[in-house]
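hi!! sorry for the late reply, been swamped w classes. u asked for the two structures so here they r. pasted raw, havent cleaned anything up. first the sequence of the first protein and right below it the tokens
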Amino acid sequence: MKRAAGVGSLAGRVATMFGLSPGHVEVLYEGLELCIQPGQIVAVTGPSGAGKSVLLRHVARRARNVVWLDAARWDGVSTPAVSALPCGSLSQRLEAMSLCGLAEAAVMVTPAGRLSGGQAYRLALAAAILEARQAGRPMLVVADEFAATLDDDSAAALCLAMRKLIGSPNGAGLALLVGTARRDLLRNLQTDQVVFKPLGGPAECYRSQRATPRLSALRGGGDPRRWRIARGTLRDYHSLAGFHYLAGPPATHKRVYVIRPPGGAGLAGRLCPPVAVLVVSPPLPSVRGRNIATAGRYSTAGRAISLARLNAEVEAISRVVVHPVYRGLGLAGRLIRHALAKAQTPVVEALAVMGRVHPLFDRAGMAAYHVPAPTHRPYVYYLWIAPRRHRSYRYPPDIAKRRLRRVAPIRSTKG
């Protein structure tokens, strides 16, 4: 592959001035072969001006089923993000956005041109997923100057999220080819192959090992997927409440669990702002999905008895919020599984409007009941019952027989 000097009267005069032969040609790549399979990430790195973009454009011209991952495509777009996607039904668009870490109602209705840099990349990836599914075949996603405008934290989190999605069953058979001068991103991308192109020298190819690399530091704290879960306060929830689609905090709460970057011991550690928060609350007195899922156990024995039984046996996950930069890394799922493991009652429930497009609670082990509400905002009711071996609690017969497992089928309830 070659890069030719420009021709013309001015270019000819410059070539003569500096002793270049007319039509000077620079050989950039010779004998380079790239084989990219679905589910793989290949990075082309090197200093600016080395020829990374030339290689990416060449591959894009030669390969079939190529889509450019260009966050700048949304610049100036006033259409809401969910409408700016190129194809797909509403449910397909919502699913693609949730897979890419955009499962936030406020983001979905925000004009695409006003999204942050990281959100714009995630929306571009959602567009690529939709295009691949529409075409029904694998797609090569090409991204030049990848994450060049993002800060270190946002870039690292975006890389981790993309690695998680590319190659997963939800990735629609995508492969990713990126060009970047930031070699600090490669570990978080967990690249399958790296092409290093120095200035004025031949390209060098390296095959990477993807098995749990030592990831580059993010806020100086390592891989956020391994940050520990700790007890927090409602103040921690308030620090992220603006990213939740429900206005205001829950009416009451029992416990708060947080994930925050390591910030040292004692007060310094507690003062680090959290990146993910889960709130456990007492259950609401009356929930239609609960009545269906538990065969009316908490609604048919008289109000006083039902409420006493409800408060003794059930607690609710009322809020789960993850900072937008860190979405798509599985932090919410970790919090939910932790809350279930630490449950102080044998039954845990959750209500989620977003559950219609994002199976977050399902993946964490809760059984889902789709409950169309008589209002404009139907929700999904989630139920989890602790395995008997984990609790000394003596299950009532009607609960013991209906003990739910992670593989329990999702039921659609219309009553």
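now the second protein. again sequence first, tokens right under
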Amino acid sequence: MTPETQAAIDRGLAFLAGRQAPRDGSFGSSASARRRVAITALSGMAFLSSGSTPGRGKYGANVQRAVDFLLTRCQPNGFIYDEGNTGGHFGPMYDHGFATLFLGEVYGMTRNPQVRTNLERAVRLIVNSQNKEGGWRYEPDSKDADLSVTVCQIMALRAARNSGIYVPKQTIDRCTEYVRKCQTTEGGFRYQLTTSWQAVTFGLTAAGVVTLYSAGIYEGKALETGIQYLERYRPSTAMHQPANHYFYSHYYAAQAMWHAGGQRFEQWYPEIRDELIHGPFPFRSSGGGWRDPSSYGDDYGTAMALLILQTPNNYLPIFQR
């Protein structure tokens, strides 16, 4: 964490705070991501990562308004989504997972009874919607599963459990079994069990490794080979993945290397830090934020970049070793 890095973070936080909707406290400015529950949760987590908490700190008011928005999107059955924008074909379980993760972190910091009530309902929905494969998919009643949605749910359950909410061990064990099956012999992770090896990507492998860490697995062949696979795509190397899902992939990769610790993180972090601050990709947005190459917009890109850059702060329990 250099002075230059902190300056970039400070500009990014100020940029993100200015993007919050004055009417309801939501984030998500692009046409396809307006008032998006997931982006609001990730933005709130970016502020938490700076040391602010609901109502306290430089961005405490922004965090509280994000919490308030998400609480208004909590349905009686526990589902957290915006009826006007459920994420289209990307699926509302992404929104639900990230929102539950954020509320889990918030409850651990505040012990707010309203947050606890909705958090317990949200956790119950995740537990009850786990399908027979052991994972989750776009909708709560899906019959199949994919690794990308599954990592969102397991991180949400880990955050909730950290804050004192009951999570059945069987749910975690079944998820772990599913994720292990998604790993190939070369260490990478694939999108679905029914998908060929060609679907293995850097981002999915990072998500697979983080899922295992979130499930309480801290050593073993699955983790070691997964991390070795990721190291082929260090930010300073020529083996870059396509720009699609760039922030998503590095959000999980930074966490994977942070949990791995030691020399691995010490090598990884400066490289992704310098790439985010200086390029070579044209991700910087005017005003101090980051632009996402997909359709999710600057709020999403900035929140994800800030979460990556602030990993060494170690403020969020979900990221702590």
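hope this helps!! also noticed smth abt the second:
The radius of gyration is 18 Å.
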